[in-house]
Amino acid sequence: MSALLNPIARLFISILFTVSIRAAVGVSHGACNDTCGTIPVQFPFGTGFGCGHPFFARYVKCSVGTLEFSTVTGIYTVSSIDYPTRTVIVTDPLMSNCSSMQNSGSFSLDRASPFTLTDDNIFVLLGCSTTSPLFDPSVDSCDTGSSSRVCRGLYSCKAVTGIGLPQNAPISTCCVYDSPKGVGYSLDLPKLQCSSYTSIYEFGDEGDPTKWRFGISLQYNDSYYTDACKDCESSGGLCGFAGMEESFACICKDGVNTTTNCLGHGYAWNGGTWEPKIQANMIIGVCVLLWTLLSF
Predict the structure, then answer these.
(1) Fewest Cβ atoms closer than 10 Å to its Cβ: which of 76, 193, 250, 281?
(2) How far is CA 250 from CA 36, 227, 233, in A?
(3) Is the separation of the CB atoms in 91 and 80 below 8 Å?
(4) Which pTM does this prediction carry?
(5) What pLDDT was estimated at residue 28?
(6) What angle do CA 183, 185, 188 make, to 5 degrees?
């Protein structure tokens, strides 16, 4: 009987030992992760439904390793998030830049969005009709101060042929759009009679458009970061939501959702941090002891 039991027991212990090792290394927080591709994802953002704050989940999600930002005008790629400054950079795949220009769609932010445009953005409208309302002398829509420098720089790019203009075309069809800032935003290209648009948020080398940084710089509202979320994160969990009411949930690494924190879900206090090792180490110790006893 002992000869039959030992191999079975040893197989069971081997499986338990492997699972314990994986627990010690760490597992994902259920359906939520703290990265999407190469971008760290922190509250109020999340990687999927039930992750992060429910209000932000309507706008930002992780899709096949790409963090995406959605509005009524399209889906844009999140290229970076700076959490200390609460700044998100998004890129429109159809937005023009010095290496690629094509007809663009429109861009908008709804008034209820927790995002606003930063002052770093310089929106430039390209290939506009001479009858565009932008050039109505009674309406001051274009920033004449920076228009010449920025427009000449963009029209010097070879890619301008992609919107039907010759390289170094006259800048009379270009407008540095002096758009209204604040809550909500709408850039309606068909209404403005323009072929394309771009947004520059940083001039790497002011005279070289190939070194300009193209994208839309947004700032998000951080007033949703509550003490309950801080307590959840300090215990090793990720903040999320659950149920029809989208109530707060702390998502633990063992896949369990709680309404408070991840205490008792594979974590223990160790020198000021929560570490997922105590339960795993206890299981490993028992496995080693049983293995030793059954070897005799």
Answers:
(1) 281
(2) 19, 12, 8
(3) no
(4) 0.76
(5) 41
(6) 165
Q: Is 219 exposed, middle or buried (0-12, 13-18, 19+ CB in 10 A)?
A: middle
Token pair for residue 13? 């212990």
- Domain-wise residue ranges, the chain: 2-32+225-294, 87-220
Backbone φ/ψ region at 37: left (φ over 0), alpha (ψ -120 to 50), beta = left
The beta-strand segments (E) located in the chain are: 35-36, 39-40, 60-63, 66-71, 74-82, 87-91, 107-109, 115-117, 122-126, 175-177, 185-187, 196-203, 212-214, 216-220, 238-242, 247-251, 257-258, 268-270, 273-275
Q: Locate 80 and state its tokens.
A: 């970076």
Residues comprising the chain, all counted: 296
Query: 230: which 2 tokens?
Result: 């801080």
Count the Cβ atoms, other than its own, within 10 Å of residue 166: 9
Q: Tally the C-alpha atoms within 13 A of residue 140's C-alpha that lie toward its C-beta.
A: 4
How far is residue 229's CA from residue 238's CA, in Å, rounded to a whole number?
Answer: 8
Collapsing DSSP states into helix, strand and coil, what is residue 169?
coil
Task: State how far Cα 293 lies from the chain centre.
Answer: 52
pLDDT the model gives residue 85: 95
Which tokens is 6 given? 């030992």
Q: What is the pLDDT of residues 83-128, one digit of tens each?
A: 999 999 999 999 999 999 999 988 988 888 899 999 899 999 999 9
Q: Given this model, what pLDDT does residue 292 score?
A: 55
**Nearest to 48, CA basis, from 62, 37, 36, 66:** 62
Quote the percentage of the chain above a pLDDT of 70. 75
